[in-house]
Design goal:
259 residues, alpha+beta, Jelly Rolls, nine-stranded antiparallel beta sheet, 31% helix, elongated
Length: 259
């Protein structure tokens, strides 16, 4: 199964960037998955259920998708999506602001077997954007079009001083899209890269003194603060959200084992 494929399609990033000037600052909405990120992650709906602009959520059960008024003001973005000869569902611009971080997660109801996939077209990006998919870094350049298996764990960190903006397109698989993905250039396999938090977690599992120090703290907020300090001391940069996400994952695993 293909994980990350650069499709044999390309778009003029200058034209796509020019369309961004047609969007008012107040039209960027905060992403609905508030628990997934730290900093600012916002978006603009270009195609949505009944053409509504105030909804970023891509309802998997909906069928009445239509272009929004914003799309009508953006000819280069409309032309880019028009090159895709497959049924389109949600089309959005997603902006990860400078210094922001999307924690590792999986996107449900997406995938080859589900018959719906997500494409990414970077409009503004830079080398200090780290996009990791299934533990491996994917470098996507402006104007390229990528198929990504986002049912796998993925995370993003914008370590730069400028925002990252992608055109994100949810497509229904048909013969044309399958053939286009098959004809694309698959990301070469490389070594998996652990997140900073996972590296620190493994360090703690092998160090009884760290385990004892952390076990002294019973208050959750104090525990997170201590974990951040110890991580920094050991050269691991991660966020309070990463620690909290680990709490939630452990809790879900415990519930599954208990039922």
């Amino acid at each position: 199964m293909k994980v990350a494929v650069r499709l044999p399609l390309s778009f003029d990033p200058g034209g796509l960037r020019a369309d961004l000037d047609q969007i008012d600052s107040g039209e960027w909405l905060t992403h609905f998955n508030a628990g997934y990120f730290e900093g600012a992650w916002t978006g603009v709906a270009l195609r949505g259920v009944s053409g509504r602009t105030q909804e970023l959520y891509a309802d998997p059960s909906a069928s009445d998708y239509a272009d929004t008024p914003v799309m009508l003001r953006c000819p280069h973005l409309a032309a880019a999506t028009g090159m895709l000869r497959c049924p389109l569902k949600s089309v959005r611009l997603l902006k990860l602001s400078a210094g922001s971080h999307i924690r590792e997660h999986r996107d449900q109801d997406l995938g080859w077997d589900a018959g719906e996939v997500r494409l990414h077209v970077p409009i503004i990006t830079h080398p200090e954007v780290d996009f990791f998919l299934n533990g491996r870094r994917v470098v996507m350049r402006e104007g390229e079009c990528w198929y990504l298996d986002l049912g796998l764990p993925h995370r993003v960190q914008n370590r730069g001083t400028t925002d990252r903006i992608h055109l994100v397109i949810d497509c229904l698989l048909n013969d044309w899209l399958r053939a286009t993905i098959e004809a694309g250039e698959e990301m070469a396999p490389g070594p998996a890269v652990e997140s900073e938090f996972e590296r620190f977690r493994q360090l703690v599992l092998g160090d009884l003194s760290l385990q004892r120090e952390l076990m002294k703290v019973t208050d959750r907020k104090e525990f997170i603060a201590l974990t951040l300090r110890l991580g920094e001391w050991h050269g691991a940069q991660f966020t309070a959200g990463d620690v909290d996400a680990a709490f939630q994952a452990a809790r879900r695993a415990w519930i599954r084992r208990s039922t």
